[in-house]
Amino acid sequence: xxxxxxxxxVAETGATESSASERSAAERLQxxxxxxxxxxxxxxxxxxxxxxxxxxxxxxxxxxxxVAEADDLTRDVFLQVFRKLPSFRxxxxxxxxxxxxxxxxxxxxxxxxxxxTFHSQVIAEESVSPQYEGRLAVxx
Length: 140
Fold this sequence. Notes:
This protein is mainly α. 71% of the residues lie in helices and 6% in strands. Helix 1 (2-38) packs across helix 2 (42-64), helix 2 runs antiparallel to helix 3 and helix 3 packs across helix 4 (94-114).
């Protein structure tokens, strides 16, 4: 029985090593695409966009629960990344930066959409009873 557990441990270790090498290959590809996009390669930026847009859209949709808002936010996130990509240092994964930008932009959008609006209207003096004359009415 020890032989079986030892062989299964080897199989698990082999699977872990192969998945780690696949991840590092994917990270190298992402780094190469970022470097090329920073140099102005539109195809590299398009590849980054297509690689990450589904995750960013899903995050924005989860946060806003609105398809149109999620579409707009996804577009805005990638526009922001396009503008700021030359200053990206690569200290962290691009996916982490994209997620952070998407969360911050979604929260900002939610804050501006949920801000209460106060409508004030001045009531004409003729229609106001004498006790409220000259006051400002506020609708909530």
